[in-house]
Design goal:
This protein is of the alpha/beta class. 26% of the residues lie in helices and 30% in strands. Residues 155-317 form the Methyltransferase small domain.
Amino acid sequence: MSARLRIALEAGGLSLPETGTISVLRPAAEMDLSDLPRDRLEIVQPVKPDFDHFKNTGYESVAASDTPVAMTLVCLPRAKALAQALIAEACSRSDGLVAVDGSKTDGVDSLLKACLARVAVSGPISKAHGKLFWFSATDTFNDWCAPAEQMVDGFVTAPGVFSADGPDPASVALLAALPRLAGHVVDLGAGWGFLSAGLLQQDGIKILDLVEADATALECARQNVRDPRTQFHWADATTWTPATPVDAVVMNPPFHTGRAADPSLGRSFIDAAARVLAPSGQLWMVANRHLPYEATLTDRFASVEEIAGDTKFKVLRAQRPIRARKSAVPRRTRR
């Protein structure tokens, strides 16, 4: 994004407001915002790892905001419904310009075409397989606003959250294969709460932690899972740690970074599960059939088996976590 923004600011005709806050919606951690005035920026990012990156590097960061601002920059997500909702949100908050930046793989071309049909657009600046364009804030996009409540199959979801159109088939398969669980259970990467809602039909579960990095999805889970045994955690599932080791972990881990498959995400979830489980604890997970998780599971657990599955999915049980070995600290040598 920085190359497109730099061109727009230096020679493309984009002028920042002289005063007031500039809100940046949904920037990824790898985005370079150095061409914008840091002391006037507000980062709006509900995804915890990206939120933490900007917070830890000194930016004012929030998970959500409805505060009026002088200008808004929308960083396009993959989901079309969410992209449209963000543009409507930006228009409702901005007193001046709304800028939109995105890659071709995130659908910036079709979104630009849709905007051109409604408003006068400046730019676009094309660079690095993407586009940046801008226009004056307007109420023309009010019909793109996110619904006040989005219900699917009796569950609250929201634009852009994982499986927003209904329960993910892999999660359905996992829930159907699970035995009765007991004690302290963790839903790692809980999303909007489908697995947890099913788990809580079991009275043997005493505590259920829902750990989810997307604050929007977690807010949906709060509405879908209303049970005094639950605890909600806005956290990166790969680094979250409970106060005490737990009895069981259930999970349908993500396996994409952008549009590219990235099995390392699932492996990080497996590592996290092994870390938080008690010595006799069990991991129950589902994955697409082709994903190579078995090697990581056998490295981190004493027993691994497939308990259910079909041509698309596999449901795996892993028991008795093996603690990761700490790296040896080299001894100092005298000189």
